[in-house]
Amino acid sequence: MRMMLAKMFCRKMARQDKIAEEGAEPISGVGCVEDVPFYRDLTADVYSPCGGHDLPAVLDVHGGGLMYGDKRLNRRFCAALASCGFTVVSADYRLFPEASFRDAAEDVARAAEFTARVYGKNGFYLAGDSAGAELALTADGAAASEKVRAAFGIDGKLAPPSDGLFLICGAFAFGKSVATALMGIKAGKGDYMKYTSANELFGEYLPRRVYLSSYKGDFLRRKTLKMHELLSARNVPVALDYVPTRRALGGRAFDHVFPVRHPEWSESDLIIRRAARFLRGVPHQSSE
Description:
The protein is an alpha/beta fold. The chain is 36% helix and 17% strand. The chain has helices at residues 2-21, 75-82, 101-119, 131-144, 146-152, 198-201, 221-233, 258-261, 266-279, and strands spanning 30-39, 42-49, 57-61, 87-91, 124-129, 165-168, 210-215, 238-243. An 8-stranded mixed β-sheet has the order 1-2-4-3-5-6-7-8, sandwiched between helices. The protein is globular. The protein starts with a helix and ends in a 9-residue tail after the last helix.
């Protein structure tokens, strides 16, 4: 039953993503190199502002409930983020039901290592939305902790952890049991399961700085608020960009991960630019 509900939810999200794409204008001034191989048979697309070079890098991890989506799902968001002065890498990772959470996390960790090594000599950051936010956080922990890498079966060292994370409407897990934490899908078996819990992960690693974004109507908002509380209690530099309404001033309804789905909206543009400044160390002013 849980798997059926999860599939139905993912189909609904896919329809909303398709609607968001219809009639949307591309982000100008940004180029893209497609299908760059980075691990196994997985590839990534690399976005950068035209004429830009020696920029800090961001790996963006798409959402999709761990069950759908690919590197092109967030292409307009990646272009919008690149326009803020980043090289942005959007990578594929293996999905349910063919792959476990462990497989997806390993792929994201490898994509992070590739991005940091090839493009990140002037700074490296991670971005992720919904389930992608959980994967980004887990991959960052694997980069920092040999114990986490061993639990996930990741051989060898990775690049150092990121300089900061931009996490949008994250599907974060907090308890020891993750069977229902991530879309109600069984995450698999193994020592790695405990590290899908932020409480367990933060016992081995703490992120350098985190920018969180959510809004009043998001079904995952409580997870973002709890993540903010958890990071604050551990003195991690963290900013919460929480929109306290369900609709914009013009009556337009926000939807799940709206800054990613609709980067052309003025509200989304403001969030993306605030996050870019925060990641670079510019003090954040609350949106509330």
